[in-house]
Design a protein that fits this description.
220 residues; mainly beta; 1 helix; 22 strands
């Protein structure tokens, strides 16, 4: 109800507790922030915890201090795209029947900080960025596409973190991806001038039997 009533740019503060519901972000072209105060768990009986599926979301989405899960699908599901930025901070997307997070294409920046993706039945997080190619026309002025700071991915059946962009740099800093069934980090940049930057991060025991095969860092 709060999301439905929100105006552009509103911050919705969520009191501590467990909420057995799905939060649908209606696509009305507005920026929106969901922020937990205390421990906030969004755990629907069915469906995604937070999702936007009515075409590309026409605004910025910010999630702060939320723990999300799903019994049967993706915990945080933005596969119809986001025509803006996606910011996730101090949160978790774990124990989902599919991915913890699936987002893209995102045409703005993706910032994920101090967030955990654990024990999901596919990837911890699957992120696709599609910044306009014109943004990458100047080699010395490549924009940021996906930033992962202080992210943890562990115990996921497939990849820990999958992140791909056709334009813009991917930055992974002070992050870990351990004990996943496939690659710890699968990072792809498809535009000549863009790149992948990894610093202060580690990936250990990914793809070990019996889970499957993979690398700590698979950079393409």
């Amino acid at each position: 109800a709060a999301v439905d009533a929100a105006a552009a740019g509103d911050v919705i503060l969520i009191c501590a507790g467990t909420y057995n519901e799905s939060v649908d972000l209606p696509d009305v072209g507005r920026d929106i922030t969901l922020e937990g105060v205390g421990t906030v768990v969004i755990s629907p009986t069915t469906g995604a915890a937070v999702f936007a599926d009515n075409g590309p979301y026409a605004g910025n989405i910010t999630l702060i201090n939320l723990d999300a899960t799903s019994a049967d699908v993706i915990a945080l599901e933005f596969t119809s795209g986001i025509n803006g930025n996606l910011v996730i901070s101090g949160s978790s997307a774990s124990g989902a029947n599919l991915a913890g997070l699936s987002a893209g294409p995102v045409t703005g920046e993706v910032w994920i900080t101090n967030t955990v993706f654990a024990d999901n039945e596919w990837a911890g997080a699957d992120i696709t960025s599609e910044r306009p190619l014109a943004d990458c026309a100047i080699p010395d002025d490549i924009p940021l596409a996906i930033s992962l700071y202080g992210v943890e991915a562990s115990g996921n059946t497939g990849e820990g973190i999958t992140a791909g962009t056709r334009c813009g740099n991917i930055v992974v800093a002070n992050s870990t991806s351990d004990d996943n069934g496939s690659d710890g980090f699968l990072l792809s940049s498809f535009e000549t001038n863009s790149g992948v930057i990894v610093t202060g991060s580690s990936a250990d025991e990914n793809g070990d039997p019996p889970q499957g095969s993979g690398s700590g860092f698979n950079i393409q």
